[in-house]
UniProtKB/TrEMBL annotation, chains A, B:
Pfam families: LacI, Peripla_BP_3
Keyword flag DNA-binding: yes
Keywords, alphabetical: DNA-binding, Transcription, Transcription regulation
Name recorded for this polypeptide: LacI family DNA-binding transcriptional regulator
Organism: Herbiconiux sp. A18JL235
Domain HTH lacI-type residues, every copy: 8-62
Entry's Gene Ontology molecular function annotations: DNA-binding transcription factor activity; transcription cis-regulatory region binding
Amino acid sequence: MKNTGGVPTLEMVAAVAGVSRATVSRVVNGSTSVAPEAAAAVHAAVAELNYVPNRVARSLASRRTDVIALIVPESTSTVFADPFFAPVVRGVARALSDTDYTLNLLIASEARPEKTRRYLLGGNVDGALVVSHHAEDHSYVGLGDSLPIVFGGRPVNPELADAHYVDVDNQASARLATSHLVDIGRHRIAHIAGRQDMPAGIDRLTGWRSVVTGDSAPRPDELVEFGDFTQESGAVAMQRLLDRATGGPLAFDAVFVANDQMAAGAIRVLHERGLSVPGDVAVVGYDDDTFASTLTPPLTTVHQPSADLGARMAEVLVARLAGRNPPRHTLIPTHLVVRASA
Amino acid sequence: MKNTGGVPTLEMVAAVAGVSRATVSRVVNGSTSVAPEAAAAVHAAVAELNYVPNRVARSLASRRTDVIALIVPESTSTVFADPFFAPVVRGVARALSDTDYTLNLLIASEARPEKTRRYLLGGNVDGALVVSHHAEDHSYVGLGDSLPIVFGGRPVNPELADAHYVDVDNQASARLATSHLVDIGRHRIAHIAGRQDMPAGIDRLTGWRSVVTGDSAPRPDELVEFGDFTQESGAVAMQRLLDRATGGPLAFDAVFVANDQMAAGAIRVLHERGLSVPGDVAVVGYDDDTFASTLTPPLTTVHQPSADLGARMAEVLVARLAGRNPPRHTLIPTHLVVRASA
DNA sequence: TTGAAAGCGCTAACAA
DNA sequence: TTGTTAGCGCTTTCAA
């Protein structure tokens, strides 16, 4: 069953160019050791036939796939309609569009992690990008030995301690936000912290603390309440913060909130209690979500460079696949978007 | 260079099971014409060796790839940080996770459309999903003859008239929104329309008009202003709408805005002019963006079932690939989310 | 129902 | 620098 007509093959190119298939292969793959005239003949034949190499055949022979998987935990994609996710994908896709790699988006079913594992180990991809949000997820432990993996966000799992990852510098960002509040003259700066089982929650708390107290040790009376990154939890946290000062004067004149969702909830409660923003309480959020500018007042917040994160993840993985040795940890800087809330 | 050790191959399974490679292949692919005992032996061998078929080899031999491409125009992924996009991808990925297909995310460079074209025609994918936003884009004309394609959103290009597409029923949705305004007792209902080079903009205008005027013919004095789906354009449109009644009483008591971004801008202007929402003007948006509930007042809006759209696109394409004959056009219903703005 | 054998289109020693 | 020649791991006639 020979290929006749239809899609041109390397063999047909060889015939037209009057050289062997091996030579065509060399030319197509940019090998140097080919006579100029032979190369020219091949190029002409390629153009004439409109030849496009078949990636599948190439993969089978070369044992490379030119495919990179981007793995997203199912919970991120369903329960959390996480606004962080889309820009990451875009960043990855954009970075990859300059290369020969193709992006495979994989929703990892947490119900049966072996499916993902087997897929990754089944020779379908050259490497993987994991957007990890969950501390508890152990699915990828050990996988890194067989397949190059780059994590988005520092994995908290200690067994993954030496993994490659790209992360936003959450601590520095939190310091940036808190310092801004100091700069505009606020003296009692509270914090609404996020989940403490994720680096984002932990590091932002630490960053805030280092500016407020000068060191990183927690104090029993510090102005912190904890939420879980949802808007409702931000509202509840603000209520608790306000309730600390029942009767007396307000204990704080500013608050750094670990994400914009919670900040939205906090501002709502502030308004309900008749307090003005930023008059009574200045508010700085984190993420620069799309809705941040539509809040009343527009929210001052730390811009989350999600697309950059995705792009850097891709670059690091590509570098590893190319045999280069990129740094294990890449931290991406952020900047503050100053609007009206602080 | 024979494969020794490492990943188990079909040949190794055949050896262990004591049958030929062809029989193993039949069992693995669920062929019926295999003796029960032979099948059992194969299954045992598969389990023992922890065999996973190599998709690349399978593709080469079968000329199928089990890959579906999701193509996103570059402009969507960069300029517009389109919140519509992420749920679509999620919907597609989720629908595909129940199948053997794998998702290939492709950013289509608009600068050189041949790259995408060649990729699609290069035997890399079995079919493609195109999230099309742009009327001007002719890249995919003719492609549908060589490769099954399903569009997300009705292509406005007339040459694509007989293409398969899945779309939200924009007209019905606009009628839903406008009728709601009628139901709450509003009589003069204005419209801030979106870009008229996209079906979403056109159809929402038509839907509004059919409720307001009873037919679909535009009238010279109708209460419409046009925006381009950005927040700023919504603000400008509202200003123009308000300026129509300089001196006199307000010409309208409600407005249906073609998307939430523009609605946010419109509400801002309303507030700036000292008008209350919904007291003076009731507002209904479209999309149910994440920020819709954080606006002041929380926005009543048409929920855009983007994830469903993605899922249905995938289902239709899979159906086509399976040789079934799904309807060319699929319209997805929407529902209204009633909050405080109307 | 089964196995033998010929590919699928390409890469990669190896020898020339 | 070039061509020859084995494969890569699987599917799929074809004949038995």
